Amino acid sequence: MKELSQHWWKLLGVIILLYVIVRGFTTPINPGVLNYTPNVAYSDSTLSLQVEAYNTHFDEYTTRVWLRLPNDSLLKAKQVEVKSPVHLLAQFDMPGNIDFEDKSSVVTSIIVDNEYDGYAIYPEGVRVKKGTSSQVVTAERFPLGVLYQSERFAFPFRNIIYETIRNTFFHVAIWFAMFLLLIYSCYCSAMYLWKKDFEFDMKSQSLTTVGIWFGIAGILTGSMWAKYTWGTFWTSDVKLNMSAVALLIYFAYWILRASIPDVDNRARIASVFNIFAFGCLMTLVMVVPR
User: Which domain holds residue 202?
Assistant: First the structure.
């Protein structure tokens, strides 16, 4: 028990890690709109809009479909036919008095909502063009305040990344941890060069080692994320390549320490190299990609 009380922070770290893993994998994703057709409509006409959504409950709750006009008013579908929990067909009467602002067309956002899911939006979805029909269609407009709001705690829905947004719990946190470790390591290296205290050298070595492992974990989780988002484990993105180069520079830190037998020289040279490596990291990751 005494040993446990002395290292309570380790137990706390394990508990927090387990909590993050559980929450990361069990927190639901907010509903969202995946696809729709058609993407063009005309004023003074009818629009039959097919919508495919994600993580919705169309068949369990009364679902409404809207088009958000450029003036932030809502046009409500006159009829909604639910085909499945995530598929529906909405019928709109497109009015002729849409404010086109001297343009030939305007872009509207697609919104679906119900009392359980709240609302899901596909921004800049259907393009409405000026119609040529002689009939005059009118339709009631609604304010944004009529939309249902969901009170559930959930990850935001984002097109393309979908469920992989959970990786923000891991990949992003790992990179932040790596930077914090390497910043402190750089500080310890500078303190060793100033005070010649080997305790700073030992701290710098330990922090850099753990930081490198966090960097490796960041690269691996990022590659898995890229595979599901972009279809490949690696791309030619400058920031990705510069991150890999920075990590290789830190690998050289390991090799350098292992190749110098003299304790004093190893500590001094490794400290200088560690400061140099951190400068390279900040330049390659924060400056070069911009």
Answer: 163-287
Rounded distance between C-alpha atoms, residue 173 and residue 252, angstroms: 25
Last residue of a domain, one of 159, 178, 212: 159
pTM of the model: 0.75
pLDDT at res. 4: 64
Q: Provide the pLDDT for residue 133.
A: 58
Q: Which two tokens stand for residue 248?
A: 């290789």
Q: Is the Cβ–Cβ distance between 148 and 113 less than 8 Å? A: yes
Terminal-to-terminal C-alpha distance of the chain: 52
Please give the backbone phi and psi of residue 165, each rounded to the nearest 5 degrees, phi first: -65, -20
**Secondary structure E strands in the chain:** 32-37, 40-42, 45-54, 64-68, 74-76, 79-84, 87-94, 105-114, 118-129, 141-142
Structural domain tally of the chain? 2
% the chain with pLDDT above 70:
96
Residue appearing with tokens 């508990």 = 15
Co-location of 147 and 218 in the same domain: no
Does residue 70 have a cis peptide bond before it, meaning omega lies within 30 degrees of 0? no
Is 70 exceeded by the pLDDT of residue 137?
no
Looking at the DSSP assignment, which residues form a beta bridge with residue 87? 52, 84
Cα(196)–Cα(145) distance, rounded to whole angstroms?
A: 65
Residue 111's SS3 state is: strand
Q: Are residues 127 and 182 in the same domain?
A: no
Sheet holding 74-76, edge to edge: 40-42, 118-129, 105-114, 64-68, 74-76, 141-142
Residue tagged 């292992």 (tokens): 258
CA distance 58 to 116: 10
pLDDT exceeds 60 at position 110: yes
Whose tokens are 């037998």? That residue is 261
Query: Cβ(20)–Cβ(173) under 8 Å?
Result: yes
Residue 7 is assigned to a structural domain of this protein: no
Tell me the pLDDT of the chain averaged across its residues.
Answer: 88
